[in-house]
Specification:
This protein has a six-stranded mixed β-sheet with strand order 1-2-6-3-7-18. A four-stranded antiparallel β-sheet has the order 12-14-10-15, with helices on one face. Helix 1 runs antiparallel to helix 14, helix 4 crosses helix 14 and helix 5 runs parallel beside helix 13. With about 450 residues, the chain is α+β, with helices and mostly antiparallel strands. It contains 14 helices and 19 strands.
Amino acid sequence: MEQVHRHIDEHFERYLSAVGDLIRQPSISATGEGVRECAGLLAGMMTSAGIRTEILETGGNPVVYGEIASGRKDGKTVLFYGHYDVQPPEPLELWESRPFEPAVRDGRLYARGIADNKGQLMAHILAVRAFRETGTDIPCGVKFVFEGEEESGSTSLAPFVEQNRERLACDIALAVDGPMLSGDVLNVCLGCRGVLNFEIEMETARFDCHSGRGGDIIPNAGWELLRLLRTMKDEQGSILVEGFMDGVRTPTEKDMEIIAGLPFDRENLKNLYGVPSFGLDKNEYYTKLNLLPTLTINGITCGYQGKGSKTINPAKASVKMDARLVVDQNPLDVAEKIKGHVARHAPGARVTVHGFMYPSKTDGDLPVCRTVVSALEKVYTDKVALSLGLGGSLPSYVWTDILGVPALGIPYANQDSGGHAPNENFRLDLLQKAVHASAQILHDMK
């Protein structure tokens, strides 16, 4: 194994070039730009690394599937999950370099998708290359599922897994995505929150009218939307949608033990997000991050948004929102409760669900989970911690609930990688370490 690790270090510049090739290909699932071209490019890279690869069609964007058979009859099989689609790069004016042209500055590689998730999924492919190029056997079976819809809700992934249960059979699934904790602590996530993406639209008149003739006479869509939103959450942040919190579990002693082992730096979090203060203590922070649901406004649209002023009384308004959901919450059930709430408080408003994922949870005491954690500890030494889950959402429920195997979330990227934001980046030292980590997992998963 020392030979593999040494090879990674000696050839990292060449490996970095391959990462750049994938980054240069746009793959924006929200618009469809470059998605199929990226799938083809990724499949070619995997084939060149010695992975038997296929592009498999789904009801939406294709899955790039790869497989390496185990040389042992009793060998375990690990499945690496990732996604090759990325978020739109806008607003372009906030980027310091072109979003789809990798740029290295101050020890970081900047580009759209470098951290979320192309750089992280490439760590697995490059790890396989290091084994192949050194003539070292991979002692376990390996499967790769790289989808093209994660940034748009992974709509086609669950049916794909349902239809390919036998093909995807494995001992554990690893979703390598997201940022580390402060201090470069790699938090192995024992689950992740689900999500519900939806939009509320209302129309109060046939057209925008003159504010002098219609103001306070014709209902204003903006004010009506604000009234509705104030019925959904109070000033303390408590969610008021009837039945929304049903089934949310009270934290257990085991939960609090895991939280006790995690790092917490209030000043770091304050500086990271650029807020004047950060009032949560450690238990409050991780309880909110992992064990409680959220209801978030993503964007509001209403009336005139151009330069100067336009004195109108808007007839239409809309809000895009998401709800992060925890174990025992069903996104479809929550969607019905939100629709019911809106119908009671704003009759005539329309709720449209744009996508959802179920939450998931895994037992970290399983032997196969301990093997993965032990492998990571060899690379990150004293900087590996178990966490209750990912604050964001990944479709890990397809592995735990459909395939019936444990699933861990492993974030290789730096905490300030800025996924989804302008100037998304991946520290080069952590990207190099990510390749070592994937290689060590392959070696130890005997």
